[in-house]
Write a structure and sequence with these properties.
The protein is of the alpha/beta class and 343 residues long. The chain folds into 2 domains: 5-124 and 312-342, Medium-chain alcohol dehydrogenases, catalytic domain (Quinone Oxidoreductase, Chain A, domain 1, Alpha-Beta Complex), CATH 3.90.180.10; 128-276, Rossmann fold. The chain has helices at residues 46-51, 119-123, 127-140, 156-167, 181-187, 199-206, 221-228, 253-267, 287-306, 323-332; strands spanning 5-10, 21-26, 34-44, 69-77, 89-93, 102-106, 110-112, 147-150, 171-176, 190-193, 211-216, 230-238, 273-276, 314-319, 338-342. Helix 3 crosses helix 4 (156-167) and helix 3 crosses helix 9. The mean pLDDT is 95. Bound molecules: NADP nicotinamide-adenine-dinucleotide phosphate. Residues 45-47, 127-128, 131, 151-152, 154-158, 175-177, 180, 194, 217-218, 239-240, 242-243, 277-279, 333 line the site of NADP nicotinamide-adenine-dinucleotide phosphate.
């Protein structure tokens, strides 16, 4: 990478991973209240798989720079920002724009990364860690001794969710393809193969009284089964619609259907709760509260990592210039852990 210039990856439209473009330009300047982060690590998330198909429910119009989150060093500060921030390592959640050598963000949106964790390791815990922590502790409010079902237990969010749940003394049933079962069992998770087994029937065998929480990113039919698997007092946290990634038609409809179901379920007097979790909820109308929670929760995840309760699973590290390969690899479903892009 040219140390003086900006390098960024552009998603020009609905394309195969090989259609991503590399663009070079001038390093951006921090405006008032902003910082320029020199990226050290940015991640490939499921969101980019949906965005390149035009299937992410609120993606910006093409072309744009994808990249949900990043970790890097503050290179410059804008007016009104403490210059002492320069040189510190921070994390940021951006939804788009992370796949670039330099990224401008509001200083208030950055979270300090503690010493003792590398940039790539920290990167694997930003969107995945915040999502997992908030769903477990702010939505389901899990307690020791409970049993939960985690769909996609080997995935980016799922693997952090599993580890945080186990650390909280919770029993975990996890769905995953068979190739991930040995490592799940080694962690203490009871695996279920969502490709070959009847997930609902198997979970009923394992937890006849129902489970205390289900974390469902699959959507579609799965979310209905997930709701029915809840024990009295249980909580469904739906947070995605992975099963409709390759559908055509409205990209909002699958999520709107889930929201409608959640609304109906919560109006029924049945002693269970359903949520559709959205990591961005509250940002538009309560920005300070949103930022405070995000900072507090990511700091908790980093602390769990320091205690050895959560390990950062890095599947591969590739430079930005190989973003196409990285996305192709993520979509192959053959890797365990997060694919990290570096400058
Ligand atoms: N609502 C929010 O705020 C929020 C925030 C972050 C992420 N998300 C959502 O979370 C989901 C996971 O993201 P990620 O980055 O962790 O993805 P990821 O690392 O690619 O993991 C996806 C996981 O889903 C599993 N999977 C795929 N299709 C499935 C199906 N039909 N049934 C059960 N499991 C299935 C995969 O299992 P195999 O490897 O075995 O195929 C894998 O474990 C995405 O839908 C994303 O949009 C939502």
């Amino acid at each position: 990478m040219n140390a003086e210039g900006l390098v960024e990856v552009v998603l020009p439209g609905t394309v195969e991973p090989e259609g991503l473009l590399i663009r070079r330009g001038a390093v951006p300047v921090a405006g008032p209240g902003q910082v320029v982060i020199r990226m050290e690590a940015t991640g490939v998330s499921f969101a980019e798989q949906q965005m390149r198909r035009g299937r992410y429910y609120d993606q910006p119009p093409f072309p744009f720079v994808p990249g949900y989150d990043l970790v890097g060093t503050v290179q410059a500060t804008g007016e009104g920002v403490d210059p002492a921030l320069t040189g510190s390592r921070v994390a940021a959640l951006v939804k788009v724009g992370g796949w670039a050598s330099h990224v401008v963000v509001e200083a208030a949106d950055t979270v300090a990364v503690p010493d003792g964790i590398g940039a790539a390791e920290a990167e694997t815990l930003v969107v995945n860690g915040i999502t997992a922590w908030q769903m477990l502790h702010r939505r389901a409010r899990i307690r020791a001794g409970q049993t939960v079902l985690v769909h996609g237990a080997n995935g980016g969010v799922g693997s952090v969710l599993v580890q945080l749940a186990l650390a909280a003394g919770v029993q975990v049933i996890g769905t995953a393809s068979a190739r991930h079962h040995d490592s799940l069992r080694a962690q203490g998770v009871t695996p279920v193969d969502y490709r070959t087994e009847d997930v609902a029937a198997r979970v009923r065998e394992l937890a006849p009284g129902g489970v205390d929480a289900v974390f469902d990113h699959v959507g579609g039919r799965s979310v209905i089964d997930s709701w029915r698997l809840l024990a009295p007092g249980g909580t469904l946290v739906s947070y995605g619609s992975a099963s409709t990634r390759d559908d055509s038609g409205s990209k909002q409809l699958p999520v709107l259907k889930i929201l409608a179901r959640v609304w109906v379920w919560n109006t029924l007097p049945n002693g269970r709760r359903a949520y559709f979790f959205n990591i961005w909820a509250g940002r538009a109308f309560a920005k300070d509260r949103f930022r405070a929670r995000l900072r507090a929760d990511l700091t908790q995840v980093f602390a769990a990592h320091r205690r050895g309760e959560v390990t950062a699973g890095i599947a591969a590290q590739l430079p930005l210039a190989r973003a196409s390969e990285a996305l192709r690899l993520a979509e192959s479903g053959t890797v365990a852990g997060k694919i990290v892009l570096t400058p």
